[in-house]
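My convention is simple: the sequence line spells out the residues, with the fold written below as integer tokens. I include a record here:
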Amino acid sequence: MTLDVRLLGPLEVRVDGVQAAIPRGNATTILALLLDDAGRAVPVSGLVAAVYGDDLPLDPETQVQNTVGVLRRQLGAARARIETVGRAYRFRIGPDELDTLRCKAKEAQARQLRREGRDEEAAAVLREALDEWRGPALADLPGRAAGAIGRRLDEYRLALLEQRIDADIDTGRAAGAVEELRQIIAAHDTRQRLTALLMRALHASGRTAEALEAFAALKDRLADALGADPDRELVALHTAILRDQPAADVPAEPPAATAVPAMLPRATPRFTGRETEIRALDRFLMDAGAEAGLAAVTGMGGIGKTALAVRWAHRVAHRFPDGQLYFNLRGFDPAAPGASPEDVLGEALAALGAPAVPAGLDERAGLYRTILAQRRVLVLLDNARDAAHVRPLLLTAPGSFTIVTSRDRLVGLDMGEGAEVVHLGPMPEAESEALLARRIGPERADAHRDAVGRIAAACGRLPLALTLTGSWAAADPRLALDALADRLEGAANVLSVLVSTDAASDPRTVFDCSYQLLDERDATAFRLFGLHPGPDLTPAAMASLMGAPPAEARAALEALAEINLVEALPEGRYSIHDLLRAYAAECFEDEVLEPERRAAALRMLEHYLHTAHRADRLLAPGRSGPEPGPAAPGVRVEPVPDAAAAAAWFDAEHRVLHGLLRTEAGFQADLRVWQLGRVLAERAVDRAGGHELLEAQTLALAAAERRGQALEQLICLGYLAIGHAAQGDEGPARDCAERAGALAARVGGPWAAAFAAYLRAGLDPGGDAALTAAREASAGFRDAGDRHWECRAVELAGRLAAAAGLLAEARGSFAALRSAAARRGDPLGAAAADTGFGLVAHREGRYRDALDHYRRAVEGFTAAGAPGRAGRVRELAGDTRQAMGDRAAARTEWRLAEQRSEASGARVEAARVRAKLHALQDDR
């Protein structure tokens, strides 16, 4: 069986002299990719990326396998030439069966002939190589991937043509080469090597003035098109011609350097995950085509940048037959200076076999690029400090590719050099667990899936921590994975568990490399992340923590984001990885004096207290309660312009606000904790967050008890009673209410008595006693001048009256509530009034009116950031729908109410609604 395959023109595959009918589309694209890497395995993932890009079909790897099956059938007797190699394919073909391989063989032969001084024979062999082209390579194939291969092959043809013309000039055919060169330059007018050949040919033909004119014309074209100057070699040629040196003395080719470097470090055999990022790099390489490609991998220390880059570099190394270079630039190593570009270039030139290494950065960079001008080389620049660190090392040769890793975001390379950037974050949950499983062993991991998931979460899904922990577990088969998970989760600082004797594997050492390079402002901001209790923060919050102007805080956050110590989020917030937060907490504890720590903690607490108070008043303008007083010096309150922004702020800061209630005890801190707890209590009531209310008020009560303030304790106990009631814990609810009543008697005054009465009314199952207590609470709050709590008591009295059938009294209560809400501009009060009118309308059989009131109430509560209260109204709307006989609509409303109750932890409400749904199901 004979095979003749041609890429240099329209794609042709002849088997025993008969052309194979390869279907156009994905089949020809995959065939071109396999032939471009003839004799080498091409991973299926690489084929997927090249064929589909980001527009992946369902199960793309199966689609590729099916297409390979079609190719094999169409190849007939040559079907076995496509071999399966693990998760890759290889097209096995001889050097005389593929036109590109024949070309490369002839090029190698010509180079050898020229080294032997047999230039005429070399020129003849190069003509034979060029005769392989039957037109533009793969010009008949559609698609980005085939186009990239075609452009690179045509670039290769141009390089061969340059070699052939160079040989012609050296054999005395300079005059004949002039016109050919002018025609080629017309199509490639900024290609400096062509102009250099034209200058040599003109000079050798005695046309020196024209040679100098050719240089001047190219210089103008480069300035206009690229904003660049001629390279050093062309300038040297121009100088030589000006001096009228003989043609033989004019530089013709780059300095001899024949070494093929293979400098990539060993790739870890247990590399796991990062498939999305690998596909992105595959796509960047394919898109680069015949151009000089550039990609960057950025992310925090320990995130796996080097492992990914080395893994990918090994995957694609076969595409760079002229070598692979690797340099660790040590941009973030505090123990040793970073590698200078000048030193790296010296190493590169030595690796490339340069006969001499010149002094000076510019001279080395020029020689480096000259040597690589006609080579396809992969360069991995690891641990770059910033864009300036790598610019002198970037390749310009067609078909070459540079990949850079850095903790810096390398914005300069993205904007200035057109680099494609892959940013690494923590591994996805499935990939992080797979990495652990591969380290621990699949059987052991399968038997303890829950523990593996917990370990991965405790490690923050950081590859460095996952690898270290997996190594521990693998080294000790007796170590119980559940116990390891407990240890990691229970550690006050997980870094105290993740310790390695190998500095390169110790997270603290890795983080130190970035931290030690920070200036004082940025280091201060980083340390303060260790004090902050939440997942992210705003520049205003950092300004308060630092006691600095907002612009200074923002600049510090941006500087930290530049080197990936923190992450800039789209909403203008900044987050930090959990392990970096633990490291920041260590730095804060070790390096900041006690008075400064306390001052920063108080500023942070006051920032959130004052912002929460402002936001709460925007959502509920009629809310009563003491003002928090002036903020401490240096506190910058968050700008919250309207109610929508206030609701969004509370949602974003939920974890932070509750975390701040655990602030270390102290007189000023205890007051602020209690004040914040009161704001959060109101938000929890609005959200129907029973468990949130209990958590917040338990901590606020402890602060009030430390302060010895009976009224503050009374209020906390009241909220605790409400929270326990929402959870269905009747005993604790009554206990808290009774303790509140005892404190109210001790405190004295109408407000305390009214508050105790309100609690009795709310906890009583119904009847005259509850209604009487609600009326008493309403009058007491009126006497105390607290319009907010008066309205609450009026609302409660109205609901109890409606339940007792006293509809006229109920209607009067809700009318008074509506009037008060309108006077105070209180949307929550207006929504509560609508809810009450809906109750009355339902009792009177006016179901449509009831639904209208409920609809307005849901809209009002939702707009005011009170989804819990909106959920309660949904339940009432479901009751009305059922009374109307609309079972489907009732089910919809109750399900929405059940979801809201379950989400907030209001167990009593959830159970009540669930019972209604079950009853509806049973009635079928």
The two ends are 75 Å apart (CA to CA). The first strand starts at residue 3 and ends at 6. Residues 191 and 573 are 47 Å apart (CA to CA).
